[in-house]
Amino acid sequence: MAALKIKKGSSSHSAYDLRDSHSQVESSHTLAVIVDNEAGVLARVIGLFSGRGYNIDSLTVAEVDHKGHKSRITVVTRGTEAVIDQIKAQLGRIVPVHEVKDLTVEGSPVERELALIKVSGTGDKRIEALRLAEIFRANVVDSTLESFVFEITGTPEKIDAFADLMRPLGLAEIARTGVAALSRGA
């Protein structure tokens, strides 16, 4: 009987992974999951992903209905169409889950993320950081003689681009909220 070996950094995945790497291309999907706002629900949702070897690219959760005690979990994950369908079906079977929507299938969702980015520097680097922040519509929310903290909202790609430009100017730290998303239209 052959043993299953998984090497770190190899293309092998979990023993539970049902992905057929030869049949389809993986794509990113944004899922909105409405759940009861109670202890342990988030752990169960995350456990579904980790137990089956699926990665979570972004995860946000907040109460959206105070009277009904409902929360919305927004998960960005990658997989083939079959894997995404399996994730949606398995999420739907978790008892406190009320609704699972694949916002990506419904059309290009409106996605935004908030980031706080600390940049340390003086002289020309400081001036360049302020100039780029203005172009990206990032706000200065804290300033010292040696650093800035910028607040920026936008698509994950916009935040990535801003962070990449800040690296050579003294990017010291970054904190990101994760994606919040809604489907377009009615």
Q: What would your notes on this structure say?
A:
The protein has two domains: about 25-100, Alpha-Beta Plaits; about 110-180, ACT-like. Chain A, domain 2 (Alpha-Beta Plaits), CATH 3.30.70.1150. About 25% of the residues lie in helices and about 35% in strands. The protein is α+β, with helices and mostly antiparallel strands and about 190 residues long. The strands form two sheets. Strands 5, 6, 7, 8 and 9 form a five-stranded antiparallel β-sheet that branches. A four-stranded antiparallel β-sheet has the order 2-3-1-4, with helices on one face. The N and C termini lie far apart (about 55 Å). The protein contains four helices and nine strands, in the order E-H-E-E-H-E-E-H-E-E-H-E-E. It catalyses: 2 pyruvate + H(+) = (2S)-2-acetolactate + CO2. One of its GO terms (biological process) is L-valine biosynthetic process. Catalyzes the conversion of 2 pyruvate molecules into acetolactate in the first common step of the biosynthetic pathway of the branched-amino acids such as leucine, isoleucine, and valine. Belongs to the acetolactate synthase small subunit family. GO terms for molecular function: acetolactate synthase activity; acetolactate synthase regulator activity.
SSE string, helices as H and strands as E: EHEEHEEHEEHEE
The geometry reads as: elongated
Largest sheet: 5 strands, antiparallel
The rounded distance between the terminal residues' Cα atoms is 55 Å
Q: How many β strands by DSSP?
A: 9
Q: Estimate what percentage of residues fall within beta strands.
A: 35-45%
Give the low-confidence spans. 1-16, 18-22
Rg, Å, rounded: 20 Å
The SS-based structural class is alpha+beta
Helix coverage percent: 25-40%
- State the CATH topology of the largest domain: Alpha-Beta Plaits
Domain ACT: 30-105
GO molecular function: acetolactate synthase activity; acetolactate synthase regulator activity
Function: Catalyzes the conversion of 2 pyruvate molecules into acetolactate in the first common step of the biosynthetic pathway of the branched-amino acids such as leucine, isoleucine, and valine.
Organism: Thioclava atlantica
